[in-house]
Amino acid sequence: PFFAASLETAVANRAEVERFFGPKKFAHMERQLNWNTARRFLGPAFFPGCTRNVIMCNTTFIFTPVTYRAYFPQEHKSSTSLFWFGLGSNMFVGNVVAITQQALWGRSLDYMAAGENGARNINYTQVIKDGLKQEGAKAFFTPPKWF
């Protein structure tokens, strides 16, 4: 799951960031930051995007099958019960945790764009501190987004 999540993030993150900022603004930001090839390939805010995908992959491919096999009553196991168990565990376990990372991803991009030259490198510690200071736990823990 870690490799799959990292690969998916590496492929999608740059495009997601470009869509977030728009192609011209993102190109300007990259020029300002003068990143090396690896950072340009992965795109900004790769860490929270990858963490989110690792959480969802682990929920889907490890947590759900292991808990279903070990703890779901044998007499109620079926393809239908597995579907609903999997949907529930993805929504109420994986998604609840992954949304915190999605919020960090967006806040990281906002932080990046707020530099005096129109771009600055992301300082995750500062992003988290600012989010908690401005909105408290709601900055990252958003129950309405669970559905």
**What is the rounded Rg?**
18 Å
Termini distance? 24 Å
State mean pLDDT (0 to 100 scale): 93
Instruction: Output the number of helix runs.
Output: 6
Given helix and strand content, the structural type is mainly alpha
- Major sheet, described briefly? none
Order of helices and strands: HHHHHH
Question: How would you describe the overall organization of this protein?
Answer:
With 147 residues, this protein is mainly alpha-helical. It has six helices and no strands. The chain has helices at residues 2-21, 23-33, 37-42, 46-71, 79-113, 124-135. The two termini are 24 Å apart. The model has no long low-confidence stretch (mean pLDDT 93).
Secondary structure elements and their pairing?
Blueprint: H1 2-21, H2 23-33, H3 37-42, H4 46-71, H5 79-113, H6 124-135
Helix pairs in contact: 1-2, 1-4, 4-5, 5-6
Could you give a quick summary of the protein structure above?
This protein has six helices and no strands. It has helices at residues 2-21, 23-33, 37-42, 46-71, 79-113, 124-135. It is elongated, with a radius of gyration of 18 Å.
